[in-house]
């Protein structure tokens, strides 16, 4: 099989739809995401600023979860999102899955969703750090994707303006965005005692 048509984040339709089975045959040195069967090229590599924000954010969450049952993972880490309910998702084969994404950071609290390939089903928290290449996809395409799949919280960090916007699931839809800026602390209501220091992250 040839490699997929490379897509910009505008997400023009390619010549065919792909599955996770196809994805597993592509070169390891290239990073791709699949959203509803459409392949998105994840190059170029993240900037130094992007990596600083991701690294400090991961450090704060990881330190808090050190002796707790939930796990935090940093990209590249495959999140497979089958278009079926959560119980059926654990039985579906990889060849049938048409969506696999690699968020910058994810928190997973249900261990039965984890395997050697990553996570099969919705994480509890998904965090994306914007870059010029991915901004539109993260803010629009992935917003609707994560909402549709029941991700409890979706965080979008924007290093260009030192801001984070957090969406929380209410029923089957995300509620009004909560915005925080540099110097503030974000209390993570899913975890007692966890506060994210944005001064350190954006400093």
Tell me the fraction of residues in β-strands, as a range.
25-35%
The chain-level structural class is: alpha+beta
User: What is the count of helical runs?
Assistant: 5
Number of domains: 1
Q: Give the oligomeric state.
A: single chain
Helix content: 10-25%
Q: Alpha-carbon distance between the termini?
A: 46 Å
Overview of the structural elements:
The chain has helices spanning 20-23, 48-64, 86-89, 135-148, 198-202, and strands at residues 32-35, 38-41, 71-74, 78-80, 100-101, 105-108, 114-115, 118-120, 125-129, 153-158, 163-170, 173-174, 178-181, 185-187, 195-197. 31% of the residues are buried. It has 203 residues and is an alpha+beta fold. It has one domain (48-202): tt1808, chain A (Alpha-Beta Complex). Strands 3, 6, 9, 10, 11, 12 and 13 form a seven-stranded mixed sheet that branches. It has a four-stranded mixed sheet with strand order 5-4-8-7, with no helix packed on it.
Q: In short, what is this structure?
A:
The chain has helices at residues 20-23, 48-64, 86-89, 135-148, 198-202, and strands at 32-35, 38-41, 71-74, 78-80, 100-101, 105-108, 114-115, 118-120, 125-129, 153-158, 163-170, 173-174, 178-181, 185-187, 195-197. It is an alpha+beta fold. The protein has a single domain, classed as tt1808, chain A (Alpha-Beta Complex).
């Amino acid at each position: 099989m040839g490699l997929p048509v490379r897509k910009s984040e505008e997400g023009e339709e390619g010549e065919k739809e792909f599955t996770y089975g196809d994805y597993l045959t592509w070169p390891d040195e290239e990073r791709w995401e699949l959203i509803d069967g459409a392949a998105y090229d994840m190059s170029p590599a993240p900037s130094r600023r992007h990596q600083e924000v991701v690294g400090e954010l991961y450090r704060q969450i990881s330190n808090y979860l050190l002796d707790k049952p939930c796990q935090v993972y940093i990209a590249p880490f495959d999140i497979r999102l089958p278009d079926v309910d959560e119980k059926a998702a654990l039985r579906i084969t990889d060849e049938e899955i048409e969506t696999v994404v690699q968020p910058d950071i994810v928190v997973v609290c249900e261990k039965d969703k984890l395997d050697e390939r990553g996570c099969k089903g919705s994480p509890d928290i998904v965090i994306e750090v914007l870059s010029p290449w991915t901004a539109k996809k993260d803010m629009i395409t992935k917003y609707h994707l994560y909402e549709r799949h029941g991700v409890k919280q979706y965080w979008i960090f924007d290093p260009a303006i030192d801001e984070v916007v957090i969406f929380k699931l209410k029923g089957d839809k995300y509620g009004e965005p909560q915005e925080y800026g540099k110097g503030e602390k974000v209390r993570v209501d899913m975890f007692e005692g966890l506060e994210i220091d944005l001064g350190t992250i954006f400093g």
